[in-house]
Amino acid sequence: MNKIALMVDSSADITKEEAQELGIFVLRMPVIIDGKEYIESETITDEEVVDALQQHKSVKTAQPIIGDMIQMWDRLLEEYDEVFYLPLTSALSGTNKTALNLAKEEYAGKVTVVQSEFVCYPTIRVMEMAKGMFDKGYTTAQVKEKIEKEGELMAVLIPENLETLKAGGRISPAVASLAGLLKIVPLLNICHGSIDLQDKVRTLKKAYQRGVEVVTQGVDPEDYEWMVIDAFDKEKSEMCKEMLEKAVGQPVSQHAFKTVILSHVGKGTIGFGRIKKIRY
Fold it and tell me: Which regions form coiled coils (predicted)?
């Protein structure tokens, strides 16, 4: 049986400790604050990113450096027979396409890149499922096919305020100002890896109720894993977890947005999410 290295990038919201415990290798992404570049989890912390956002500094993220990605593949292939890489969804980053082309042209049979629709903690759960399949003898090609055909992420993001989304260009300043004046809270839908406006309501309480309705609508709860993800707001996360558990009658796990996603959604954002269980 081939020895396979599992690899993600830091949009998967995984700490160094968690990655080591799970045996997952992480390509850390650049974060740029007021023009100065840092590397997530190495030269900047989540708390420092939150501070920068609250001080209204310019906070941006960039794709992983191609050379760093190639160096990681080469380093892993010294110890492993193959690399299995699940990057950030192709709808939000060009990394996926770049990695797919490189793997096909220069690392055929050595590096497998999944055409991803995943972001944040669900990426890690999918990789844990992949590990389970590899343990059962599945090949990298078979696991890639299973994830691309059967893997599914649906989530609703509810920002506490629109400042970070406005600063990152996700919404226009005019829309943010109008939403603030009218006390409008947007619900952002993540489906097939892309982000769209799902709905608009007048209060955060109604937004959380609507978020639970949207993420649970039309599915059998037993076919999915359920989660709540928060941005430095554990108390709010606990409340939302109870709401979601009551709606689905299933366990709901709690997680935190880390630097890369936090840079785009801002402190106080809550995410309700589900990922489909891959049967194997």
Answer: none
